[in-house]
Amino acid sequence: MLNLLNLLDRDELAKKLRKIDGMGYKRYQIIKGKYQFQNFVLYIDRVQGDPFANPSNVRIKIPQRVAGFPKETFNTKSREIALRDYLTRVLYTQAKKHSRKSGSGYSGMIKVEKPSQKILKRNSAFVNDEWVEIRFRVGLPAHGRRILAAEAERIFMEAIPAISDALRFKNLDEAEVFEHVLIAEDADFLRGLLPSLNLIAFVADGSILPRRSGIDERPLENAIPFESPPSLRVFVELPNKGEITGMGIRRGVTLIVGGGYHGKSTLLKALESGIYNHIPGDGREFVVTNPNAVKIRAEDGRRIEKVDISAFIHNLPFGQDTRAFSTENASGSTSQAANIIEAIEAGAEVLLIDEDTSATNFMIRDFRMQELVPKEIEPITPFIDRVRQLYEMGISTVIVMGGSGDYFDVADCVICMINYKPHDYTEKAKAIAEKFKLRKKEVPVDFKEIKQRIPLIDHKDLSRKDWLKISVKGKNTIMFGKELIDLGCVEQIFEVQQTRAIGYAILQAMKLMDGRKSMKEIVDAVMEEIERDGLDVLGFSEFAIFRGLELAAAINRMRSLRCVLR
Ligand code: ADP
Ligand code: MG
């Protein structure tokens, strides 16, 4: 350990490298440590075991007298998070520029994961009054399994100093840095303003909502800018940008209707994203949503563990209990019901639902079907008959529904998308609802509260040893030991850095599972710990912040989860 505290200088590192040139890869272990360079301190924290293994963890600390960031770029919480996000983006570009495949496996690679267009709290960059710290990974070069010292020297003596230099404030685009942090601050302010305006979301006039494609998050070129209907337009004053206007979506039940391909789902997607801030140029900089808004969808095939879905589904064939419903293979409707109950259990305040990804029989049951199939033999109480009760419990809903006018009865606001522009059709829809009253309300049992579940994870991989391998395969899959957790339908996870953090957070959550604490208590405790002590409490890897709602969603999808009802 003493060795680690020992500050050597850069020449010592060069000497060490030359000494082990051509030797077996394991000899790289001797370079672990801390080295003083002219303008920064280099930390080699972990050295990989072979050229094909997880690349080595390296970080540098640049003193502020060199880095030179003005206080105004990080003197509020929003600005600090945004500056760290910005530095990660510069680091990403720089790492790519200086990366050079130079041998076997990951040899010569300098890497940090690509950030999405969300401005997130990350553990790849830090900043305070004294220094700037950035972290990345280096594939220590080898030919086969023999150390290539010259290449390693290129990385440590040339590439890393160049990266460090590029990160100095004077070498950055000053206007761009300020734009990044001030926009993030404005967006946080705007989101914080929502409750006092009685809103659950705000979509600024001029926003660009559509993306280039399902796999390209950049804004669609030549898109029609968003323009609020006059009746829903709200004026707000932002600390940096000043006054802006946009569409306010009020608490309650909001319906988004309109013809196919007129931009309904695109608007909802923007609301889903509005829980996080976006980088300048994204088009959604001032689209903000209640931070506890959750996308709800059908997800057949998922596992469900003792969820009380009786508000939506009861009297299943052969008397299956739906007050503590479990299945290894949920249907469309049972999965959507469970997704709602679990989201509320974990603290959701707004539900975002799209007909495109919903189970039809969960959403609607029209007059004719009510006549044909009596309520007594239909286990489902459709969402339309619960949405007002949910609102009485404080939960607002935004529903995209182009296919059924039955929802006019229960909506507070009806927004109609025509050629990508929203119109306030509330009055029109209400008049039609008055004129054609056929559908009966069907509410068999009351729905007042959500029972808290006590989770326990009985993990075979953990009972044998107290170490467990956690890895991710893209943003949708966590390998938790041997267990695969499928997050493909948890749509508000936007990058793999978040998925990885969730994977490690599950382990943290498991430590708190004592047979007494509820799911919400456990998830909240983990999130508080991260808030207090940073993402590093999760472990030693590259992470980005996520919500407790997504952590709960991941735990809820584990096949090893067992619950008891409190
Ligand atoms: P809907 O859900 O109403 O069927 P979508 O939201 O899926 O429609 O949008 C249909 C198509 O229109 C998508 O390809 C989307 O990218 C595009 N689109 C959405 N909004 C705009 C816009 N404001 N300007 C240009 N194209 C848009
Ligand atoms: Mg759609």
Total domain units: 3
Shape: globular
Report the sheet-strand fraction: 15-25%
> Biggest β-sheet: count, sense, barrel?
7 strands, mixed
- Overall mean pLDDT: 95
Instruction: Tell me roughly what share of residues is in helical segments.
Output: 25-40%
Radius of gyration: 26 Å
Low-confidence stretches: none
Number of helices: 16
Question: Would you report the number of β strands?
Answer: 30
Label the structural class. alpha+beta
The rounded distance between the terminal residues' Cα atoms is 47 Å
Which ligands does the model contain, each kind named once? Answer: adenosine-5'-diphosphate, magnesium ion
Task: Spell out the blueprint of helices and strands.
Layout: H1 2-5, E1 7-9, H2 10-19, E2 33-36, E3 41-46, E4 56-63, H3 64-67, H4 77-98, E5 110-111, E6 118-119, E7 125-127, E8 131-138, E9 142-143, E10 146-147, H5 149-166, H6 174-193, E11 199-204, E12 211-213, E13 216-219, E14 233-238, E15 242-250, E16 253-258, H7 264-273, E17 277-278, E18 287-289, E19 293-296, E20 304-307, E21 325-327, H8 332-345, E22 350-354, H9 360-363, H10 367-372, H11 387-392, E23 396-400, E24 413-418, E25 421-424, H12 426-435, E26 453-457, H13 460-464, E27 470-472, E28 477-480, E29 483-486, H14 496-512, H15 519-533, H16 548-556, E30 561-565
Parallel strand pairs: 1-2, 16-23, 16-24, 19-22, 22-23
Antiparallel strand pairs: 2-3, 3-4, 4-8, 5-8, 6-17, 7-8, 9-10, 11-15, 11-18, 12-13, 14-15, 20-21, 24-25, 26-30, 27-28, 28-29
Helix pairs in contact: 2-5, 4-5, 4-6, 14-15, 14-16, 15-16
The structure holds adenosine-5'-diphosphate and magnesium ion.
